[in-house]
Amino acid sequence: MLRGGEFCWHDSLWREIPDDVARRFTHRLGSLHGIWLPNGELVHAFSRRFPNVTPDEYMEAHVANLERFAREMPVDVLAHPTLLPLTLRRHPLEELWTEEREERAVGALAAAGIAFEISNRYRTHERFVRRARDAGVRLSLGSDGHTAEQVADLAYPLALARSLAVPDEELYDPLRHGSRTGFFNRLRRVS
Ligand SMILES: [Zn+2]
After folding, report:
1. 31 CA distance to ligand 1 centroid (A)?
2. What is the pLDDT of residues 9-44, one digit of tens each?
3. From ligand 1's centre to the CA of 190, what distance in Å?
């Protein structure tokens, strides 16, 4: 049985967890549920309040946060890479995520060795997934299930990965590909 955990980038909890506790997770996901604007204001993805910035200004901050997240946070997967604040959800993802922003995002994930989640809950546009694949970023399937029926429902993410000719064995599997928590190092030392 694997034991993963999702931690918020904007929250300080992940920085405070002692190494021996982190090692009890088989793998960890990081997520951008909150984004810091240059003025220090936090924009929460599920808040109805949106700051006095344009969608473009917000997206620039979002990508800058993503780049910092990739440099600083020792996780294995970026959860739901296209989760955006409620206010922006009426805009097409392909427009908010310009190709230049997608390029920066996948470059940061590739450099850090962080996988790109294909989320069943917050569905991304195919171009972004394709770009991640082309940059050598590993893909990870996530149901993000909040109810019993939703948990482990990977039909859509798996179909998308297969439509991009990604072999199933290349999809992120902590048992096969390891993780950054230290969990598997310990097993190796013991055996
Ligand atoms: Zn999340």
Report:
1. 6
2. 999 999 999 999 999 999 999 999 999 999 999 999
3. 33
> Domain range holding 116?
4-190
User: pTM of the entire structure?
Assistant: 0.94
Tell me, in angstroms, the distance from the centre of ligand 1 to residue 191's CA. Answer: 34
- The structural domain count of the chain equals 1
Please tell me the distance from the alpha carbon of residue 172 to that of residue 114, in angstroms, as a whole number. 10
> In angstroms, what is the span from residue 103 Cα to ligand 1's centroid?
22
Would you tell me how many other CB atoms lie within 10 Å of the CB of residue 4? 16
Q: Looking at residue 131, which CATH number applies to its domain?
A: 3.20.20.140
Measure 6 CA to ligand 1 centroid, in angstroms.
Answer: 7
Q: In the numeric block, which tokens belong to residue 28?
A: 């960890």
Distance (Å, rounded) from C-alpha 156 to C-alpha 118?
A: 9
Per-residue model confidence as pLDDT tens digits over 90-140: 999 999 999 999 999 999 999 999 999 999 999 999 999 999 999 999 999
Distance 85 CA to ligand 1 centre (A): 12
Q: Is residue 27 a contact partner of residue 4, using CB atoms and an 8 Å limit? A: yes
